[in-house]
Amino acid sequence: MPVEGGGIHRIWYVRGRWAYVSALLDGFTDYIFLTVDMNDPAHPREAGRYWLPGMNRAFGESPQWPLSRRYGLHHAIVSADTAYGAWRDAGLVMLDVADRAAPKLMTHRNWSPPFGGGTHNCLPLPDQEGQSGQHRDLPYAE
Questions:
Q1: What is the pLDDT of residue 125?
Q2: What is the DSSP pairing of strand 82-86 with strand 32-37?
Q3: Spatial distance between the Cα atoms of 43 and 35, rounded to a whole number of angstroms
Q4: 34, 120, 131, 140: which has the fewest Cβ within 10 Å?
Q5: Strand segments (E) across 1-142
Q6: Which pLDDT score is estimated for 51?
Q7: Are 81 and 48 in contact (CB under 8 A)?
Q8: Angle at Cα 112 formed by Cα 11 and Cα 33, nearest 5°?
Q9: What are the structural domain ranges in the chain?
Q10: Residue 36, H or E segment
Q11: The pTM is what?
Q12: What's the pLDDT tens digit per position in 119-129?
């Protein structure tokens, strides 16, 4: 799928209509999240996007983090309607992707500082149950 910019880095696609990618697009400081409509596999098209505030230089945003830090999406793994994004030095980002055209932030957890950054993978564990027996997603990040 051609994009304007550096291109696509990682893809999460397990069949069906939707794929999820990290892409470096013109106007952004680093890789962002895209939903991709695979309805016509010969012609995939961008359906939606999400980025952390401060990443979209084309819209006049400025990073609020040290420029030595990498605030870019390595990749996301999607379970049901939740995307678990490994956002490098910005930690874990969970997105509601029920509306593929408008991904919405559910939570953003950054442990750097005090710990090192470089979050590389987030593994959803959707079958885990809390003490109350209620279903909850417990992402594991490394």
A1: 82
A2: unpaired
A3: 14
A4: 131
A5: 5-12, 18-25, 32-37, 45-50, 75-79, 82-86, 92-96, 104-109, 122-123, 140-141
A6: 98
A7: no
A8: 25
A9: 5-127
A10: strand 32-37
A11: 0.87
A12: 999 888 877 65
